[in-house]
Design goal:
The chain is of the alpha/beta class and 444 residues long. The protein is built from 17 helices and ten strands. It starts with 15 loop residues before the first helix and ends in a 6-residue tail after the last helix.
């Protein structure tokens, strides 16, 4: 793997053609606003007190709250986790007129500036109760996309007939939002100073679909990456010969080795986001995965991961057997930085089910886990690693962004994101084997 520079500021090259494709994906569907509002609410990013009065004007602080919640839903992380990942902190003294934690988070992430940027008033004021105009909203939306690595270079000009009224500081953001179908077009007019309603604010965020931007060619997928994905099951001291039980001491030795050798754990969700958005995958990235969602993932794995500042992806079953984590445990793990993915409802071998039953396992487990966790579930693991081309397509159609198998090897661009390889880690596997895996040598 080549040496890479970490960072979220990416230069993605846009051409007109993929942008029209992106626009078709976003704007080509004629759905009523209320359907879209319902869909936005079901994604989980609209706070309860903003789920009414859709014609009222949204305030600057309210839009920050929506943006922060949207980022949490989109990334599956808490806002504190997102800030920590980027080494950012809220500056409590940033503004004299607000200490709202979402406003300060949005400021730290570069989503908002002070009001001065647009109005020339005192720089330390944010004006939280002020209304938001369309051109300021466009700037914020583009900044939110930047947080996810979807920054764009040279979007095609939006050609609104009132383009002359659009301020210079917002022109590029307006072009970006228009090309990506995030802004409504109204008879060729943009209306830069019109105030944004609650409905519009919600829908603008709802229309950011970074995967579809990526698919439409807006983001160029990263092509140079190779990441070892480790598959654990139980981490528990167990006297039997059951190969799925890795001892607590062995597991901690693995983490210590990763820690001391500068490996960085990322979740499967982060890996797929990096790859599809064109972001560089960090050097020495490794993904720790835990299949079946055993209670020991909560009691033994989570505290050790926290001790080393690491995270991982737990693939849970949505029928919650007695030996597995309860919904409360999954929620707590997710709050504390773990990703929860789906491993079907019942752990059936999908290749042995009728196609409609397999689709049911794939989609219902996603919905059930999303209800429990209040975030989008984007990662999937095939029970027994058993899959075929049709199943990989079904997982993709269900809205997941990745799926892992049990085929041995590094996950890399040679594989579809729905057929990613992993290395199984079993009882007695020590640091020596881990080392061989990480170095991509055939495991001893
Ligand atoms: Zn399993």
């Amino acid at each position: 793997m080549k040496k890479r520079i970490l960072g979220f500021a990416l230069a993605l090259i846009f051409t007109t053609a993929p942008f029209s494709a992106a626009y078709a994906l976003f704007g080509g569907v004629n759905r009523s606003a209320s359907d879209d509002i319902t869909a936005a609410i079901s994604k989980g990013f609209v706070p309860a007190d903003l789920q009414s009065d859709y014609d009222s004007k949204i305030t600057r602080a309210e839009f920050c709250r929506l943006a922060v919640k949207w980022l949490e839903v989109a990334t599956g992380r808490t806002i504190n986790g997102i800030l920590a990942e980027k080494g950012l902190r809220r500056d409590n003294g940033a503004f004299t007129d607000t200490s709202d934690s979402d406003v300060l988070a949005a400021y730290a992430l570069g989503i908002i500036g002070s009001e001065a940027a647009s109005t020339g008033t005192a720089p330390e004021r944010f004006n939280p109760a002020g209304q938001l105009d369309r051109q300021s909203a466009a700037v914020m939306i583009r900044n939110i996309c930047k947080v996810l690595g979807l920054e764009t270079k040279n979007p095609p000009p939006s050609r609104f007939s009132d383009a002359g009224d659009i301020s210079e500081w917002s022109a590029a953001a307006v072009d970006f939002c228009a090309a990506a179908g995030i802004l409504e077009r109204r008879d060729g007019l943009f209306g830069p100073l019109e105030r944004v309603s609650r409905r519009e604010g919600i829908l603008m965020l709802h229309r950011i679909r970074h995967n579809e931007l990526a698919k439409a060619g807006a983001a160029k997928p990263t092509e140079d990456w190779s990441v070892p994905v480790l598959m654990y099951h139980c981490v528990e001291d167990n006297e039997t010969n059951n190969a799925f039980y890795v001892s607590v001491a062995d597991f901690e030795a693995h983490l210590r080795y990763l820690y001391e050798n500068d490996y960085r754990t990322i979740t499967m969700r982060e890996l797929t986001r990096m790859v599809t958005s064109g972001e560089e995958v960090p050097p020495r990235a490794v993904v720790l995965t835990f299949d079946d969602g055993y209670i020991n993932n909560y009691t033994n794995v989570l505290p050790l991961l926290e001790k080393y500042g690491m995270s991982g992806t737990v693939y849970a079953l949505s029928f919650y057997p007695g030996w597995a984590c309860t919904p409360e445990m999954l929620r707590d793990m997710n709050r504390r930085g773990m990703e929860i993915g789906s491993h079907t409802k019942s752990h059936a071998n999908l290749t042995k089910l009728a196609p409609e039953e397999a689709v049911d396992e794939i989609t219902r487990s996603k919905e059930a886990l999303e209800r429990v966790l209040g975030i989008e579930i984007t990662s999937f693991a095939y029970p027994y690693g058993a899959y075929n081309t049709e199943l990989a397509q079904a997982v993709k159609n269900a809205g997941y962004q990745s799926a892992v198998s049990m085929t041995v090897g590094h996950a890399s661009p040679g594989q579809s994101l729905f057929e990613l390889r992993r290395y199984g880690i079993y009882k007695g596997d020590g640091v020596e084997r881990l080392k061989r895996i990480l170095e991509n040598k055939p495991p001893a």
